[in-house]
Amino acid sequence: MKKITNKILWIFAVGQFGWSLLSGIISSWMVYYYTGENAVFSSYITTNPLFLGLTLFGIITAVGRVFDAVTDPLIAGWSDASNFKGGRRIPFMKAVAVPFAAITVGVFALPQTSNTALNDVILFITLILFYLFMTVYCTPYNALIAELGNTQKNRINVSTYISFTYIAGFSVAYLLPNLAGMFTSMSEANAVRLAIAILAAIAAIAMLVPSFCIKEREYIASVPVKTKAFSSLFKSFKNRQFRRFVYSDIIYFFAVTLFQTGLAFYITRLMHADEGNSFVLTVMMTVVSLCLYPAVNKLAPKFGKKKIVVAGFFAYAAVFLITVFCGEGMGWGYLIAVMAGIPMAILGILPQAVVADIAEADAAETGEQRNGMFFAARTFAMKMGQAIALLAFTSITVSQTELSYRITAIVATVCCLIGAVLFLFYNEKQVMDTIVAANQNKESAESETADENAAQSSAEESRE
Fold first, then answer.
1. For residues 300, 304, 309 and 310, what is the CA-based torsion angle, rounded to 10 degrees?
2. Is 87 in a helix, a strand, or coil?
3. How many whole angstroms separate alpha carbon 18 and alpha carbon 169?
4. What's the chain's Rg over C-alpha atoms?
5. CB neighbours of 189 closer than 8 A, spacing ≥ 6?
6. What is the pTM of this model?
């Protein structure tokens, strides 16, 4: 096997830029452009609550999560058990990158018939396909985090690099209204669609970079898993440490998605500023976060990932609490952006490394490399948190009052505190001790094999 270098890890990280850009378009701008006072597509779909205060988006995302509950483990099981010439992961990524980008454009471009009910159905179908294609790309992609992170150093490095490209992708997604504003000769709706198409094309190219530039079989010696998908999922959730991680992770994504979905509204409704400032604030968050990456890289091995992740939860809680009380003026936005860069650096890097640790420890104990299933479960946690957040956000803000937007920030604050408490139950020492013991046993076995081979060679030379 070829040595996994930082160059390979950076090439791999480019794919994260692509899918996070598409995810950022949906999570940050879908609700904004389809509902509310600045919505350019609100006339195409049903915007009023349908029943029990549930909105169309709330219902779609709830159904979508049920769909994900089935497809996530199926794709993970398929990837874990596959034996394609190009590897267990890369062929999936290569096949779905372009459809994934195309359906993102379809979410905004297709529901525009004269029939509102038909548009509702089209929006439902395109969003379901969006999450399906995200699963097909992200589940194998995330499994490669553990497989390319074959050492503790590589795990931290790859988690750092993909955190950077993840934030970069979301930052570019916030540039959407600025890009749309350049097409002054078009209607606002068509300008937005064209801007989304341009961003989606960039995302597709980025997602294809690792697919064509990394020869998986040259770097990873993988053995197909024979356990069926849902049995493998059950085995993954039998891992107590993984369960503890996932509980906190769902809450993390719920809180962060509330914030991301609400950012444009916080700027326009609470700070009374222009929506284009979303990109400015995101750039500020990104710069602060990047400046802290070296510190997170150095502190994680010294203090352990657990303590720093818990600190990240508390830092996010402080950011959301400031949002609750923010007033007019972008000064509040700048304060929020600078402070948000701290937990973005921490929780952008370390959770991925934690899952990779758990997957490696589990492989040492069970003898099965089910990296795809572990990261599929994490992807499901991400989408579950995002879906519940969209359901909560659209339901809480149906009145579109300033108070309703502040309430979303209150909910995010409380959830971050709960997430911190839950993660305290994760036993990092046990996981790392298992990995160390497995590596020592492996080195011992390799040493014994080398000694036996040397002895055999010596004996053959003596006979000669």
1. -140
2. strand
3. 6
4. 23
5. 40, 41
6. 0.69
